[in-house]
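Q: Could you fold this chain for me?
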Amino acid sequence: MGPFQRARIRRLTLTAEDLHPADEGPGTQLSLDHARQARLRLEPVIDKLNARYGHRVAGCRFVGA
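A: Sure. Below is the predicted structure, expressed as structure tokens.
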């Protein structure tokens, strides 16, 4: 290795306060997977296109991560 090394994260602590049950109102779930979020937003659009113009008219393939 060179003279510079990355520090390794040994422990990560999260604290949550003021939590409410999910059925009490709209909430936002945080995601660190941006590619998954993009697929989830795209799926309903593809479903509508396929419903309107026929099965397999539109699709998506995500390569890499």
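A (continued): The helical segments are 34-53.
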